[in-house]
Design a protein that fits this description.
Distance between the termini: 30 Å
Number of strands: 0
Strand content: under 5%
Helix content: 55-70%
Number of helices: 6
Structural class: mainly alpha
């Protein structure tokens, strides 16, 4: 089980990691920073505990702002797989997640997600 105070400390560290990067202080409202701030507020002020997907996203966010996320990152693909196989699949969200963590064109991201979706639908070990 997770210690709530420990979760808050880690989320604060993530928030300041994202906040401290010069390219995120341009006044345009960085989406990573907004996501971190909202999650931290929910946990700290609302007493909520992040779900498994939010923990995965926070981990990926840390990696993204600490050197990058590889195209074959298992955690990122598990989130994408969940989006593609849920009751109401969301391919657009899956493509957005892929592009959020991997520096890639929209066309290449769509092709990668399409291939993953095809593999999942055919029962391949993707």
């Amino acid at each position: 089980m997770h210690n709530h105070d420990n979760i808050i400390k880690k989320l604060e560290k993530l928030y300041w990691k994202v906040h401290g990067l010069p390219e995120h202080n341009d006044g345009k409202g960085n989406t990573d920073l907004v996501w971190c701030r909202n999650l931290l507020s929910d946990v700290k002020d609302g007493g909520l505990v992040p779900d498994k997907t939010e923990f995965k996203m926070a981990n990926l966010m840390w990696k993204k702002h600490n050197g990058g996320v590889s195209k074959d990152n298992d955690v990122m693909w598990s989130i994408i797989d969940m989006l593609l196989t849920q009751e109401r699949p969301s391919k657009i969200q899956a493509i957005k997640i892929y592009r959020k963590f991997v520096d890639i064109t929209l066309k290449s991201a769509k092709e990668a997600v399409d291939a993953r979706e095809y593999g999942l639908k055919n029962g391949w070990d993707v």
